[in-house]
Amino acid sequence: MWNFIFDLDNTLYDQFIPFKQAFEICFKDTKIDSRQLYERSRFYSDNVFNLTESGELPLVEMHIYRIKSAMSDFNLAITDFEALQFQKSYKKFQQEIKLLDEFENVLNFVCRANLKIGIITNGPKYHQKKKIEQLKLKKWIAKENIIISGEVGQSKPGKEIFKIAENRMKLKPEETYYIGDSFENDVVGAKRAGWKSIWMNHYKKSYNSNILPDYTLTDNKEALELIKKICNAK
Known about the structure:
six-stranded parallel beta sheet; about 230 residues; single chain; 2 domains; alpha/beta; globular; Rossmann fold; 11 helices
């Protein structure tokens, strides 16, 4: 029997939506493309993730660093105050995030099929739990099957956080798919742990790696049919 474990950010909901909403309030007079700014912000956020996770870099300083650095890439300078105003607006709109319809259908299907499901997500415990509450994910996923890096002290792409999930949920790696949008964190992390992987490649990115996902999807609408196909093939 297959198991399906999900990433959270930018997999079960669209992380760009609250970013764009905050952008339109704080930086509407700039000529920057909001999607490109979002991509650069994520790059800088990922760049210092380990420092943030360990506490070496306070969260507030990370929030300032990532948006100031992203703006700088477009030759625009903002103050720390402006960076924090953006973060305040971004946080507000994160409280309004919605589960993607396509993944609501997926969660309904895997629950009806009585398959094991869970979440592995990188991020601070408090922030990730707020998102999980907002998305009402406990309707489908048991509390103990939600693993947050900031809570367990391990993070993707390290194998340890996947092993925590295996032990907690009694998963067999060869029967477990991890579904996420980050090639490095989700595909590489899962494959190194001996899991299978489904890469939600929303932006049709290329990759240079000898580690390959089992499946690559570029449209959320493809997810349900693929999971049905996997389940019917066994």
